[in-house]
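Cross-posted from the bioinformatics board.
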Amino acid sequence: MAHHDPLIASDIQAYLDAQGSKSFLRVFTCGSVDDGKSTLIGRLLYDSQLIYEDQMAAIERDSKTSGTTGEAPDLALLVDGLAAEREQGITIDVAYRFFSTDQRKFIIADTPGHVQYTRNMATGASTADVAILLIDARHGVVEQTRRHAFIASLLGIPRVVVAVNKMDLVGFDQSTFNAIDVAFRDFAARLEFDDIMTIPVSALDGDNVTTRSDAAPWYKGPSLLGFLEQIEVDRQSLGAPFRLPVQWVNRPNLDFRGFSGTVASGTVSKGDPVIALPSGRRSTVKDIVLYKESLEHARQDQAVTITLTDEIDISRGDMICSASQPIEVADQFQAKMIWMDDAQLFPGRQYIIRTTNNAASGSVTAIKHRIDIEDFSEAAAKTLRLNEIGVVTLALTKPIPFDPYSDNRSTGAFIVVDRQTNRTVGAGMIDFALRRSRNIVRQDLVVNSSARAAQKGQSPAVLWFTGLSGSGKSTIANLVDEALFERGHHTYTLDGDNVRHGLNRDLGFTKADRIENIRRIGEVANLMVDAGLIVMCSFISPYRAERQMVRDRVGSERFFEIHVDTPLEVAEERDVKGLYAKARAGEIKNFTGIDSEYQPPENPELRIDTTKMTAQDAADAIIALLRDSGLLDDPRLIMQDGGGI
Amino acid sequence: MDTQALLSDLEDFASRSGQSVSTLARKVFNDGKTVTRLKDGGQLTPRTLDKAVAALDALKQDHLGAKGVRLSHLDRLEAESIHIMREVVAQCDNPVMLYSVGKDSSVMLELAIKAFYPSPPPFPLLHVDTRWKFSEMYAFRDRRAKEAGMELIVHINPDAISDDVGPFSHGSAVHTDITKTQGLKQALDAGRYDAAFGGARRDEEKSRAKERIFSFRNEHHRWDAKNQRPELWNIYNARVAKGQSMRVFPLSNWTELDIWQYIHRENIQIPGLYLSAERPVVERDGVLIMVDDDRMPLEPGETPMMKNVRFRTLGCYPLTGAVESEATTLTEVIQETLLATTSERQGRVIDSDGGASMEQKKEEGYF
């Protein structure tokens, strides 16, 4: 690596101390192959002497077979990594490169600039502090330049450096450079950059890349590297309101309850009043823990664990904020969205919207317009396809804390994950929350049974528990209900308790009344299935014909008959409610099993022998049955964090 | 900003910074009376207003100076790695950390301990053993796992045991494939892990530069370079279907130099093999191989020589070249590393084929 600081050899300790406090800069580079972007990055790596001899030998060897620079080593080969792209002669993805100087460590996110790679550009730009845009001095500001600048601005990069490359090919002509400078600034006035720097360079020869060049005496500014070394990036956001997205709750024992996360903006000190959102509960910072240290202050980008003076309920997905500047909470937004998948966006479909520490189910309710990145015009659109950018309205199934992206790049960003393929299909930046007002036009969806079910992320079904009185139907049904609820499913249990006292209080226990009882329950269950729920029905339901009637009504594929099979003598011996004793004594008439018939199911989906199985085993068996039938997601697919989906 | 906004900003900052409004007002307006006049509805000229706003901004910046501690590149790398680890624990059901006993693993383990402190890291360590590591590495491994309070799972491919696979008898390619690549798949399948931390860095090798921090692997542990999930901001998507998994690389953005600097700064324990000592070695094909145990067959006329050597990377001892060195302390090792002119992977046998070799290996499931 041949770092040439003489201190390394003379006083390594002093060198390490000096190097320990380097600053850090994330850079995003964009340009087409022809702009010489890979050569520029190769040049930065090469001139800052970070190439080992064996790596250089490999480049020299490769230059002869696939290089484009004749005998001279092709520095672009330092950068073009994957075999596939070497064959095609283009870079196809985002690559990350590292180099450092005495002042600063740099991470370069390098992306190709073709129109079909908007996705990659957005990825590279999302974490960058500075963008380097390459312009070929011979061609000036072209369509691609505008596109790259637009994406850099869209992703909120505050500073842009325009490297006017190939100045050697225009004889380092000042007026050519000035014309490009003016043209770019004129165009960029429409974008959101805080700061624009223009530098004439030749990546091939190294002019103004790492050192000032004599080739352009009229240029008085810094070299590209000199500029990147000195720009200040984080003062501004340190003054922003304090935000700690809670990533993980740290509870090693009863005495410690810490909230771990990476500070998204601002600073916090011990004793500061804070508020947790969405709950709105307030407390005071007791301690800021970073490993064995207790810190007085924490600032943006530090990963810390905070403890509070009060025991308030905070979990992953919450945001701890300065009490005087709480974050907004909302469930409907306008956002800019970049689509990143081959499968197009389906408005109305439920996707997972994942923010820095939260996840919620949500859908695009309307596409306001698509932005044409060729000319920034707005076009009507019904969908977004791969690499398209649009302004959309988004509705989530629960409120989340957020800042507008223009205020905070960390708490205003989200990605879109497809529930079925698990792929990251889009990325978005929140503009603002939509209040419930008259001007919100909802997507005119066909709200039908499957839409309701999809919204809940589940397949609706009826689990019909039949068996003698005291067989254990309700106990098992309740356990199943709890297990499903815990997995985030939307459920309801119908049983004698909640039906007989209301809906069916006019019915007795004669055969005719029993049939009407089941018919009504079947209708209610069917409505609930239509609403997308998983319904547990726990009724003796002694007659096959009525159970078949409900099965036909609901649809056999959604109906699971579970026979809770407890022999009469066992149920009677248990007699939890004392009903058998009363029936034997003649105090209750028409009691199933005593003086009224029970017709056991002939082909139930599941038979549970309660003399051989505990209620918990039975519940597990039912969950397994549902999973095997494809009604439940695998438990791994259920989101742990953010809850509720 | 108008006069009233400036006033409320000033009061807000006074309460945040614990200074009295009059003290602050004197600093901002150069006199103590202006603030009273403004409170009574007085106005400032645009020029005075601009100057006052600038003065207040400067005071705010100075105030941040104390708590807006400068974060060095190591602090930032550390914070990023901790964020990644916490995210895995929050999103995944059953994570595991691959532990290979080298310096990168040592740093990764240290970061895991930091990320979850005072809790122990809530996942086990997994060592896919080849039975041919340096004997010193085994002792170091067992001790560190115990100190960290973590469960240590050691997996050795049973085929490697039954066929007594080794680099001398089977050659390095077969040995590596059976013990490492196949062994790793077996261990991950057996543990049903949905996420596995690895210590790989993007600067190690060209194909790694494009790998995501959360790298998706299908049911057969295969990596598809052309079909990776986009990774934006610090938002990671760890969602997988049954049987699929994530390889997670918390050290992605670290370079070899960063690793050494961090070991130095944090005083992290690393195996003594990284430091120079007198060790028995033989020279084969220009590479110094340490005779770590009596399984190493000596060729006719070959006698181990005692030399002062150390190792830049650690692996199976027959496949790891030693370098002659007098660096017996960590700082001396770092010094030599910085002055070195060849990359650290040069000592590894696996990289010396064509440029795309690592990429192919990864597609086949190599970590």
